Amino acid sequence: MDTKTDKKQPRYINPYFGGILLGLLLLATFFIAGRGLSASGAVKLLVVTVVDKVAPAHAEGNAYYSKFIPADGSSPLYNWLIFGAIGTFFGGMLSGAIFGRIKKLRVEHSPKISSTTRLIAAAAGGILFGIGSQFGRGCSSGAALSGTASLSFGGLIVMALMFGIGYVFAWFFRKLWI
Amino acid sequence: MGPLIPQEIITGQWDFVIALLIGGAFGFILESSGFSSSRNIAGVFYGYNFVVLRVFFTAMIVAMVGLLYFSYFGWIDLDLVFVLPTYLNSMLFGGFLMGLGFVIGGFCPGTSYTAVAIGKIDGIVFATGFLIGVFIFAEGFPFYEGFYTANDLGSITIGEMFGVSNELVAFLFVMMAIVAFYVTWLIEKRVRKNMTEYKFE
After folding, report:
1. What is the pLDDT of residues B70-106, one digit of tens each?
2. CB 3.0-4.6 Å disulfide test: which of A12, A66, A122, B100 passes with B125?
3. Dihedral of the CA atoms A57, A58, A60, A64 (nearest 10)?
4. Using CA atoms, how far apart are residues B21 and A84, in angstroms rounded to an integer?
5. Is B14 on the interface with A (CB under 8 A)?
6. Contact across the interface for A126 and B99, Cβ inside 8 Å
7. Total domain count, chain B
8. A3 pLDDT band (50/70/90 cuts)?
9. In terms of Cα–Cα distance, which of A85, A92, A22 is closest to B28?
10. B5 and B69 both lie in a single domain
11. How far is B139 from chain A (nearest CA, A)?
């Protein structure tokens, strides 16, 4: 790997500036909506919608799906969380376009592992995150960040575990990253 | 005055427009901070890039202190702000799984959306895995419904839990963040000196 990569480094905003922007956005969200930011809720509603379409009786009979199926017969997708996630996607795309990071489809991985290894790890991590976010009542956005910022004890637990367990297991998975 | 929507100061028809705009700003900040790259994110666990810690903790203390000041000025009624309820057992387990998923997958859901948006296949695979994980959870729900709701502490705040004021909690968080920013800056400098494989993508 050449050492002159500095010039090729993409332009990221200063992390503390990014953090202040994110904090102000979160504060504004609390002020407007009375609740924080969310990312995982949209996927949950998407899963509920698909299962309800494919197997309505099964969805009604499951205590988890049925919690999120509106009683008035409207679609679970007609929801604040879905619009938020669509916004997140396009906001990311706008930033990528402005800073020149939208490129053809590619896999980003450490040079020490293959694309396949990276994709298997990404799938496994995604599945674990999917299950964990439902037990945790939210993911990094809804539980760890918004939860802790609104001083929820549960939010603090999720945040502490998420980072703490990451450090505990970092050594076992170091080959994936360094 | 606030929060606006729960008090119907802003009516329902604007909800989705506001959600789109807030979501858009969220995605923009995540991507422009470098969270569309799993290698940037995972750096927090190996000491070569603490961008996650910097952005996350800065955002958290800004919003936390901001909420308390808004309440102090009478701009927001904190009783109407959602405090995530605490289900101790379930959340400990959920946090455990997410920590594991984080260090293996290198994304969390929100950051994976922005990775998808700029064309990362690993982001697409993570997000798809996330969806499958939610499905697995829901299908198995009858087996652990009791565990899911066990040890329900309600909407308890950190201050109530430890018997101190939430103002003190916020102050301690700010102090911890400042120390963490300094210590991780020292660690990062040292780790990067010995690292040649990593470059930003």
Report:
1. 999 999 999 999 999 999 999 999 999 999 999 999 9
2. A122
3. -170
4. 8
5. no
6. no
7. 2
8. very low
9. A92
10. yes
11. 8
ipTM of the complex: 0.96
Residues of B in contact with A147 (CB under 8 A): 83-84
For B139-189, the pLDDT digits (tens) are 999 999 999 999 999 999 999 999 999 999 999 999 999 999 999 999 999
B94 neighbors A132 (Cβ within 8 angstroms): yes
Query: For the whole model, what pTM was predicted?
Result: 0.95
Q: At B120, phi and psi to the nearest 5? A: -90, 120
Contact A126, B132 (CB under 8 A): yes
Q: Which domain holds residue B31?
A: 1-77+175-201
Distance CA B28, CA A114 (A): 29
Interior angle at CA B106, CA A2 and CA B92, nearest 5: 150
For residue B197, what pLDDT is reported? 62
Asked if residue B60 and residue B3 are part of one domain, the reply reads: yes
Nearest to B60, CA basis, from A129, A156, A138, A39: A156
- Number of C-beta neighbours around residue B189 at 10 A: 10
Q: Does residue B32 lie within any of the structural domains?
A: yes
Q: Measured between alpha carbons, how far is A29 from B100 in angstroms, rounded to an integer?
A: 29
In a domain, residue B164? The reply is no
Q: Is residue B200 part of a domain?
A: yes
B60 touches chain A (CB under 8 A): yes
Identify whether B161 is part of a domain. Answer: no
Mean pLDDT computed over B32-54: 96
